[in-house]
Amino acid sequence: MFNKILFATTASPASDDAAHVAFDLAKKYEAEMKVFHAFGLPSRGFSSIVKDVRTGEEAMNDTDYANWVLEEMKTTYEKQSENVKKLEFATTAGVAHTEILRTARKDDVDLIVMGAHTRQEDVGATRYRSIVGSTMQKVAKGAKCPVLIVSRPCTTCFWYFSNVVFCTDFSKAADSAFKFAFKVANFIGCKLYMFHSLDMSALASGKVMSQEEIEEKIAEAKKKIEKRYVSQMGDFDNYEIEVLEGIPYVEIVKYSRKVNGDLIIMAHHTREVDPEKALLGSTVEQVVLRASCPVASVNRPDKVDEAE
Amino acid sequence: MNKIILTHNGQIIYNQRPLASSPLPYLNYQVELEDSYTLRSYFQMFEHYPVLGDTHEFLPGVREQYRSCPDQGCSWEDVEYLEFGKTVEMIGFPSEPRLEIYNALRGVRGKESCELKNILLEGFLDIPVKLGNLKHIVFGDKVDVFQFETVFTLFEIIDGITWELSFQSSSNACNVRR
Fold first, then answer.
1. Contact B111, B132 (CB under 8 A)
2. Is B175 on the interface with A (CB under 8 A)?
3. Regarding beta strands A4-8 and A32-39, do their DSSP bridges make them parallel or antiparallel, or are they unpaired?
4. Residue A91 in contact with residue A76, Cβ under 8 Å?
5. Which residues form the UspA domain (chain A) (predicted)?
6. How far apart are CA B20 and CA A64, in angstroms?
7. Is ipTM > 0.95 here?
8. pLDDT tens digits, residue range A158-181?
9. Contacts of residue A257 in chain B, CB cutoff 8 Å?
10. SS3 B74
11. pLDDT by residue (tens digit) across A253-288?
């Protein structure tokens, strides 16, 4: 299912949870794996100064420093590396999301695995900003392949997942997310929950719907899920459909917790909006921060169609 | 500023008497916590004043978690107390500067902070809750972090604690299967 996996690490403990899942996946699927770290951001324009990932202090970007970072990464993941057949470590200096996307494109990877945060300190700030402007958000938005975001310890591994939750708003991007969700559920043989939330936050600013209208919309959405997704699933019958009204990210998190979701799959920006505007308040970011399981963001059909 | 006291058993005291009417007009009152105030006291407040349960979209969910917790002994040795604090941060320089203000609940042991999101709610319900300072961070420079005494309103407490708890969950299912 995955032949090449890119694990984008911060080379700090903030990536430990993601590392666990990434190495597990590579082992299970005997995939090639690249452990990649883009260190620091050149201060302004060209600079030989980078920000050290451990200390946050400035360091000289030279061959010695790069080699030192590589050695640190190899030492950090030494034990987990034993189970991966083909493993490569790589670093570069630059803007993290650009370098991750560039590497993913160059290596034609099937999956990017990464954590949600760069650093674990100042948790309140990270959450308040909903990781706006972070590497994770930009990678999830721009990647052609699925991006698996792991924001907290996951003691399972990919082939143990038994409850995959696919969230849709019926957009084109969500179609790609569905393909991936179905492929995963079918491959693993686990249950697929298909979920849609009637966005009451958007409706609240306009016409207030009556209970009858809400129920009508819910019934419509259920039919739409049947027509749009279930029709593509052939004999696969291990699924459930649920539609609830509310604020989408709240309902997704609540639903996933209720059904013990192991993996949530959704598009990064589920509505057809200007990608730049999608940066703020994106549902997937809120879900990443609050869900108790990894979240896979899928925006494009490219690698989903190819992956077998 | 008008002041109310949140008691250990979840009552709201104003003018030395428990509130008998709706607590909504008191949402912007300054809050003082009783010494023995815990997170359990916070949840008990919603039993006394159900209307407050509608003030945050995640409250129904976290209250459901609370109801499934044991009646006592919910503490975690790594967390000495919970601190509710406020941060004012100037960010953005050299690009367009902006000011952000947010509240956060954190676990404290000694002088160290710890993450609550991976601890089950039953791990810290009976841990004392204290009100902290206002932290002022100037353009992300840790050297320029100033701390000031401040006040918190009832709304800030409800919104901030529930906001924090909305991130808090643990992958039970995974643990069970393992």
1. no
2. yes
3. parallel
4. no
5. 1-150, 162-297
6. 70
7. no
8. 556 788 999 998 988 899 999 999
9. 61, 169
10. coil
11. 999 988 988 899 998 765 555 544 544 457 888 888
